[in-house]
């Protein structure tokens, strides 16, 4: 008895058509990988931008803290002892204090108030903070 010849390819194709699953071709997989790669590159770019933004914010925060510390110490010393200064701290930040002008408010011949500018530069020389304030003589 002779068995009927079964073509394996035809049987497989019939099964695929019946189940509705023909699978993915190599080109479809490559296109999907390309689209996925473009998406991942976008996420990586956002991550880099976020890290740089956080570093920049940290530098501004540190500079403001150094400026605030100098302002507080300046306000606590006597009026006549205030002088220009240029300080480099341990982190490499340069804190510069400059007396911009002095005023005689009561016209008695002595200065009663001064405007002081505090600038903070990061280690690379970029100005990160600029604060101006008034210091008055205790009258």
Structure, described:
The protein is α+β, with helices and mostly antiparallel strands and about 140 residues long. It has one domain. About 45% of the residues lie in helices and about 25% in strands. The chain has helices at about 10-20, 25-75; strands spanning about 85-90, 95-105, 115-120, 125-135. Strands 1-2-3-4 form a four-stranded antiparallel sheet. Strand 3 (about 115-120) and strand 4 form a beta hairpin. It is rod-shaped. The termini are far apart.
Brief characterization of the structure:
With 139 residues, the protein is α+β, with helices and mostly antiparallel strands. 45% of the residues lie in helices and 24% in strands.
What layout of secondary structure does this protein have?
Layout: H1 8-19, H2 26-76, E1 85-88, E2 94-103, E3 113-121, E4 127-136
Helix content: 40-55%
Sequence of secondary-structure elements: HHEEEE
* SS elements, strand count: 4
- Rg over CA atoms: 36 Å
What portion of residues belong to β-strands?
A: 15-25%
Strand order of the largest sheet: 1-2-3-4
Apparent shape:
rod-shaped
Q: Given the structure, what is the number of helices?
A: 2
Largest sheet: 4 strands, antiparallel
Mean pLDDT: 86
Query: Which structural class do you get from the secondary structure elements?
Result: alpha+beta
Tell me the number of structural domains.
Answer: 1
Gap from first CA to last CA: 126 Å
Q: Return residue spans where pLDDT drops below 50 for at least 5 consecutive residues.
A: none
């Amino acid at each position: 008895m002779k068995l009927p010849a079964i073509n394996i390819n035809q049987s497989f194709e019939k099964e695929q058509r019946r189940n509705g699953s023909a699978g993915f071709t190599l080109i479809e997989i490559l296109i999907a990988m390309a689209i996925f790669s473009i998406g991942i590159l976008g996420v990586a770019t956002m991550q880099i931008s976020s890290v740089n933004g956080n570093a920049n914010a940290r530098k501004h925060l540190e500079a403001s803290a150094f400026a605030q510390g100098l302002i507080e110490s300046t306000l606590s010393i006597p009026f006549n002892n205030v002088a220009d200064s240029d300080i480099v701290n341990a982190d490499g930040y340069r804190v510069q204090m400059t007396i911009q002008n002095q005023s005689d408010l009561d016209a008695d011949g002595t200065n009663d108030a001064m405007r002081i500018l505090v600038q903070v530069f990061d280690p690379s020389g970029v100005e990160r903070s600029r604060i101006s304030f008034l210091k008055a003589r205790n009258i």
